[in-house]
Design a protein that fits this description.
The chain is an all-alpha fold. It is built from 14 helices and no strands. The two termini are 33 Å apart.
């Protein structure tokens, strides 16, 4: 297979499965958890506090490298998240696929959990996932405009380039559908000052990529922003 063909297959798989590398705890894992992992999965903040007072390690990990804080974030258990961080859990820990709690919330389009994660010390600047991306890139890819804005406010790097050679702005185009959600994510990035002329690895600019796909609204927004 040629390099171009391999990349095309990767794009199809990645676009079809936006959380391809993100693995929430399975039903069997949730049932098998004990200790802090079980308390986090159940959202039992009182048990989290009791266990950590007795010396339980808030950094304990399951077979996928998830800490109790990752589990609580996946399950949207906010009080358990607060209790874990207050007990010493690292809000920037990465699990085996290199996801942190901010990127978990970003992929899920879960603004309340993202805002909580950021307030607890999670950094919008973390490099996450097997793609060396960021929570902002993941949100732009999925067209989660409110998440994109929240991450921008939190200082996410606008022009970080992942190992596919793409910025958040490029991912909103090449992995988006050209519809309102992705156009709004693109708008948020442009308004924040993202580089509208940074090309991909093949030298194609965001404007060229949007034109190739016939994404008229994106083309118009880019042109108004001075894209070439």
């Amino acid at each position: 297979m040629t390099a171009v063909g391999a990349l095309a297959l990767l794009l199809v798989a990645w676009a079809a499965s936006p959380a391809v590398a993100q693995t929430p705890p399975s039903r069997d894992e949730l049932l098998a958890y004990t200790g802090l992992l079980a308390a986090a999965a159940q959202g039992n903040a009182a048990e989290v506090r009791a266990l950590t007072l007795r010396g339980a390690d808030p950094g304990v990990r399951d077979g996928h490298g998830r800490t109790p804080l990752h589990v609580a974030a996946y399950r949207r258990h906010h009080e358990a998240m607060r209790a874990l961080v207050a007990s010493g859990a690292n809000p920037n820990a990465l699990e085996s696929d290199r996801y942190d709690i901010a990127t978990i919330a970003a992929v899920a389009d879960d603004l309340p959990t993202l805002e909580l994660a950021l307030s607890l010390g999670a950094s919008a600047r973390n490099v996450t996932s097997r793609y060396d991306g960021t929570a902002l890139i993941a949100a732009a890819h999925l067209g989660h405009a409110s998440i994109v804005r929240a991450l921008i406010r939190a200082g996410a790097p606008l022009d970080h380039v992942n190992n596919l050679g793409w910025t958040a702005l490029i991912e909103a185009i090449v992995l988006g559908d050209g519809g309102p959600r992705h156009a709004e994510a693109l708008r948020a990035l442009i308004d924040a000052g993202a580089d509208v002329n940074r090309p991909d690895r093949g030298g194609r600019t965001p404007l060229a990529l949007a034109r190739e796909r016939g994404y008229g609204e994106m083309v118009a927004r880019l042109e108004r922003a001075g894209a070439r």
